[in-house]
Amino acid sequence: MAQNSEHGLLEIAPDGDVILLVGQGAAQKNLRVHSVALKMASKVFAAMFGPRFAEGQSLSSANPKMVPLPEDDLEALTILCHIIHLRNDVLNNMERPGPALIHESRLWLLSNPDFYNPLHYVQVLYVQQPMVTLQAIFKAIK
User: CB–CB of 33/20 below 8 Å?
Assistant: First the structure.
């Protein structure tokens, strides 16, 4: 995972065709992602990056679209993007969420039901059983 702190860019997908501008002002961070991954995870993103909206026109990794999301929670959206981009290498190294973030995440999921399906199993492993890591599961399967 590449981090360009000078420009506040977190490259979840270094060859992504979209840069999500999350937050506002000095707290804004930019997440480089693939529109296809977002479209597969959410009907809202599927519409946004479809042919009927400006965000879906001329998508290119050479010139990624900038999509402002000033009201979205940076931590939650960063974790979500790691999950839907299958960045388990990053998720395994992240600190487990505390009770407050778990509660906020559940409330966020209730208000964004599109993400229930792609997040269901990760939520079970990552939130409800914080001592279980994906590495432990793979070892148990072998």
Answer: yes
Asked whether residue 141 carries a pLDDT value surpassing 90, the answer given is no
User: Backbone phi, then psi, for 20, in 5-degree steps?
Assistant: -85, 125
* d(C-alpha 75, C-alpha 101), whole Å: 9
Distances (CA, A) of 56 to 6, 7, 36, 45: 28, 24, 10, 9
- Which of 134 and 80 is assigned the larger pLDDT? 80
Pairwise CA distance, residues 99 & 115, whole Å:
20
Contact 32, 64 (CB under 8 A): yes
pLDDT at site 132:
46
Confidence at residue 48, expressed as pLDDT on a 0 to 100 scale: 93
Residue indicated by tokens 């599109």: 114
